[in-house]
Amino acid sequence: MTTFHELDTDTFTTLAVGDGGPAAIAELQRAQLSRHLLLIGNLLREWPGAPAERDAIGEVLDRARDADPDRFAEVVGAPLVGSWSGIATRALGQGIADPSDFGQLAGIAAVAAAACGVPADLAVPVRNGVASVPGLGALSAGDAPVRLIADGGRLTTDVGGRRVLLSGDGDVPGLQRVRDLTAPSVRIALDDVDPYRHGHHAPPANRLDDADFEQWDKLFGEAWGLLTRRLPGRAAELAAGLRTLVPLQTDSRAARSATIKYAFGVFGLTLPPSAAEFAVTMVHEFQHSKLSAILDLTPMTDPHDTSRHFAPWRTDPRPLAGLLQGVYAFVGVADSWRGLRLEPEIAEEATRKFAEARINVAEGLRSVEASGSLLPDGVRLVRGLRERTDELLAEPLPDEVVHAAELALGDTLRQWRERNPAAAG
After folding, report:
1. Burial class for 120, CB neighbours closer than 10 Å (0-12, 13-18, 19+)
2. Domain for residue 3, yes or no?
3. 8 Å CB contact between 340 and 230
4. Per-residue pLDDT tens over the stretch 295-314
5. Which InterPro entries did the record assign (predicted)?
6. Global pTM?
């Protein structure tokens, strides 16, 4: 059974100003688990294969959930399970679902069974010679069939009749494990093998070599140090809700990052240029995850509104819903640069970027407020964002920094009008 979720007044108010905290994040996670289960239920009903296969997977999921609901939630509520369920559901609706899209659920069920201490023995799909072990890694199989076997809390793979223990942290021949970025009191997966990690505006990177992974891990540790020193509330929130990062392929353009709306607690990014940018990017993208999760519970804008708006952080005209997403994310960005001003080595950069981010938020929020297309909970959200934005604008800054930010915004608006004369008119 799934549960109907709604945010109580205090939780909504805290989230509306751009904060949240671990308790609010836990509530959003519970709602996302229900969403995953609803989509899984629909995929089981539409199962294209043998009914016995479908029934076996469904039974394993039910027994795992009954045996240990918390561990079950960790596996089935994982961000990339959300990514898979969204991709598979859309493919089903478009009539292009592949049997392996459904088969991914067998791997999820087997991993959940091992985590919850119940037995399972399920065949999993092999794509291009590789079998996915969700949350754990990718297993080279060649042309051999693969089964995942849970027994006594351990997970074993059977590849063409050869069994290998997957549980534990040791090396397993043919298994590319999902590796963790680590810092004191936090571990976040850097998943470069899951077959459903795509969907960002840039393709995911292929498996990182050890040197590249160590570079990511080092920079993450430095970024996490900045967060815990200067933004402890944000660090606590991220520790509670950010579970996975997906490295994206790089090109000649600047660093990029993106969040998928149906995958709470994961986002894709290229390696940021600095620890400060890494820290701010984590806050920025997790803001998108939070608002997307809130929008799963309650609508904010009139779906019939067709207006387009100027967003200082984009070159294209934005629909109202997209503009609201940007405002919510950049409230977090501005708040982060404000906190990082206390870090001596980057104080000047942080002050400049704080000034730019807060005036951009104010400009975007003004358009949202004037739209006339906010639904009741959208009005409540925007009221909280106005409270936080006014607080950011009240922060004293050097006159020359404020003036430079105003000039930059004016130049951005001019260029946007030149590119988008119809929307500007």
Report:
1. buried
2. no
3. yes
4. 999 999 999 999 999 999 99
5. AKG_HExxH
6. 0.96
